């Protein structure tokens, strides 16, 4: 009892001393708080005393009958010392129960706002890549002239439960079209370095393909990507990735998909219309250098795929291709930053080589002659680009690229389709300024020789702004 009163008195003294140390304007409020504390402690002490008294009485009443039953006649009864009675502590107020067994997943949202102004010396409406027949709707060239909304993107991501996470990217194009770039679920705890992804996603072939456009170092995709992957290859399907448990980075990814986009077609078929596999390795060299390199293979099936072409006298025609396309990609990236700190200075050298074969049949001039025949083509292309950050927030970049269309074999239709001569090339210079990690302004100038005739001089001013939570970008 005395120790209990001492503790209560000590608490009251500390509270009184604390109240006396406060400034005068708070005296009344502190006195009210002190009175409330004193009343609360007195109430708790009285409750403890009553419980202690009740426990002692219960112990004595239980002990007396036991002693009278055990004592023999004539024996001296020695009262037993009662065991210490544990006084339970005053229970703290229990928290209000929640209506859910677990909190809902935290949904993170981000919005990339992008716009640009483009000036070209040739009309983008008749843009084409000579020697590479592509679908009429292919996303190639510099886009529209003048001011335009570039591809803006809404991203949504969240962990669904301990086993899955989800991600969706909805793109808004300059012509007021809305498309789902990516929408997939991905495992988080398969173990053994395995990860499974299902839904719509960009393929992991090459280096640039899996990256969203706002992470590119230049405004547009290289010509090789435009000509052989339709700018960027994405599909609906599944992907299994395995990360090796080694000090050096090594990863293998395998994909099966619908084959809905170029070089495949979205047709009503059972099974997979696309298969891809990629392997990448990388690591650090000292404190200032790092690298990554890889090989990839993509196979896609096309059925009656419309391809823009021209006849032997230069009139536009449409051909329909049915067959298989195989694309091999070799990519390499090397980065340098003094002592691994890229905030002030850094340099990135990036290169990819693509080789494509198309083998099947083609119907030449579907709305005219409609002449069927065999078709085969072997084509290649590459690009090399370097980015140098010469001071904080400022970068300069240079990209050079070249395509080899080869000589397509139209079989019996050889004289019905016109063939381009020469190799498409392009040279691009870029300067960008990033006031923060959430904003970027870019000036780009390019000499584009993808079409026959005079070069197309292209000037672009672009802005990119990031709103909301946005995940880190890949290497």
Automatic annotation (TrEMBL):
The keyword Cell membrane does not apply. Keywords: Coiled coil, Signal. Residues 1-21 form the signal peptide. InterPro entries: Porin_dom_sf (IPR023614). Residues 31-58 form a coiled coil. This is TonB-dependent receptor. It comes from Ramlibacter pinisoli.
